[in-house]
Design a protein that fits this description.
Elements lengths: L35 E7 L3 H11 L3 E2 L2 E8 L2 H10 L5 E4 L8 H12 L6 E6 L7 H7 L4 E4 L5 H28 L5 H6 L13 E13 L2 H5 L4 H21 L3 E6 L2 E6 L3 H24 L7 E17 L2 E7 L1 H16 L3 E4 H6 L7 E9 L6 E6 L5 H9 L1 H12 L3 H14 L4 H16 L9 E4 L2 E3 L6
Parallel strand pairs: 1-3, 1-4, 4-5, 5-6, 10-12, 13-15
Antiparallel strand pairs: 2-3, 7-9, 7-10, 8-9, 10-11, 12-14, 13-14, 15-16
Helix pairs in contact: 2-3, 8-9, 13-14, 14-15
Length: 471
Amino acid sequence: MQIDDDMIIMPDDDNFILPDDEAIVYSNDDSTPNQAWKILIVDDEKEIHNITGMALKKIMFKKKTIKLYSAYSGEEAKSFIEEHPDTALILLDVVMETDDAGLQVIKYVRKILKNQLVRIILRTGQPGQAPESQIIVSYDINDYKSKTELTKIKLFTTVIAALRTFDLLNTIETQRQASTRFVPNKYLEFLRRDSIVDIKLGDHVAKEMAIMVSDIRSFTTLSEMMTSKENFDFINDYLKHVSPIIRKYNGFVIKYLGDGMMAAFPNGVNDAVQAGIAKLKAVENYNQHFLKENWRPINIGIGVHVGNMMFGMVGEKNRMQGDAFSDNVNLTARIEGLTKYYGVSMIISEQTYYQLDSNDVHIRFLDMVVVKGRKIPVMLYEVMDGLPAIEMNLKIQTQACFESGIEWYRKQHFQKSKECFEKVLMINPNDKVVHLYIDRMNDLLKHGIPEGWDGVVWLMESKVEFWTSRH
């Protein structure tokens, strides 16, 4: 006869199992923790442990055996559940070292350990000490039994019902945790929703936040050297290294953008900038692994801005995702795109710069530009932290001369500006920003300086235009 997974064959007698001379030995061996349901018996009478063990020792539910553990006091029970949060069932006495020891275990498990999955069945030999009507209302238990009413069959029925409920709740919790990979808890917090099932299309909030956009430089070229599987493996491995950094600095990933990501930092720019620095360092470490695999090292670009944005759910009722919208979000993406143009790793906007309160971050002014889609100039700053030590030290060493060169450039004293920049190149010949400024000045000297030009450049696609900011 085929036996169903949930079935168990029990003896026919319905008598309470009396203790015999042979004591039951309960093993604390965890050699097969995934193949057994953990049941904790909590009682200060040893014979109760033996009786329960005799009654349950042959049970198998859903192809898993039952593994019994013993605790003889409330304190022992607390320690066990803390060490074994995957316990399925507690068979709990009330009166042990104190009159309410069992009740204190319930409070500890539910409120301190916040374990809502384990099933708790109260078994008392002194019902007067813990009246059922009061206990079931005041304490988060799942059943209340008098020891005298628990025949072998009734104990079996009670345990199987508890295991079935635990199994169902555990499955639901696993699914809930899996859903957070697609809708992070931060989404729920921002949208003021308790659960993913409460989220509706169009739910949104408006808030000022720091925004980060980043991507891998020249990824298209790199991906052409890989197979499809290698591409996916590489991207997922890279994101595995850098995504936890966002969470570490109190941010959350809004969405992945192929080889890049967009992230938000509700607490402001300090978190965003520190996360950017940490990402650059992580990539430098990651490249050491990359070199061992004979792949070309990667570089990333990071843009950070701060401003009001709308965050919410977009799509249609059968397919939704979180996204962010605003001119500030678009500007952040433009800023990140300029990292390649300037040959730098991380650029922040002037708003980010002025809100940044860390004195430990090394920053230099880059440029004043108008990006595509906007008419208002934005000042850009390079964050030098996170760069390889040699590159960072060279930029710090030449910073004063570099910024003097920019000041003379903006005043249209190009000769003095070039002198400053040439001094920079003598120390740091690979500073691409300096080369850009020298090329600009040569272009302005060749074609003439536009009337009213105030040092602002308009970056339109691949070309640079020297219009006045009042253009």
